Amino acid sequence: MTRSPRFSVPPSLADLDEMARAALASLPAELATHCTDLVVQIEEFPDPEVQEAMGLESPFDLLGLYHGVSLDQKSLGDLPLGPDMVFLYRSPLLDYWIETGEDLGRLLRHVLIHEIGHHFGFSDEEMATIEARA
């Protein structure tokens, strides 16, 4: 389990990027083999287009987002439109971390795995069921 280091100042984009890479490297091999081309990007907030498309009341309402074509929808004949990406949003993650007191490394890993679930084609409801069983 990835645990976050202690921070005397709020973690930077680079700090979260390092934590996300460690979390990605800690995935079980059976998942990791399907994530080799997945790009993980740390952003401060979701961009205005994402906020509008998702109907967010606040940019703090979204911790992460998968952007791409899920593996269950891909076809060998499809032309790639760009890399599959997971966005993790620094300010919302830090806000949630401070509000809940949850370990930041655990939180970041949880959000990353949730978004990777979308990469595999799972819905939010399916992932909630899987998490409830775990």
From TrEMBL:
Gene3D superfamilies tied to this protein: 3.30.2010.20
CDD domains listed in its UniProt record: MMP_ACEL2062
Domain of life: Bacteria
InterPro entries xrefs: Zincin_1, Zincin_1_sf
Protein name, per record: Acetylglutamate kinase
Organism expressing this protein natively: Pararhodospirillum oryzae
Organism phylogeny: Bacteria, Pseudomonadati, Pseudomonadota, Alphaproteobacteria, Rhodospirillales
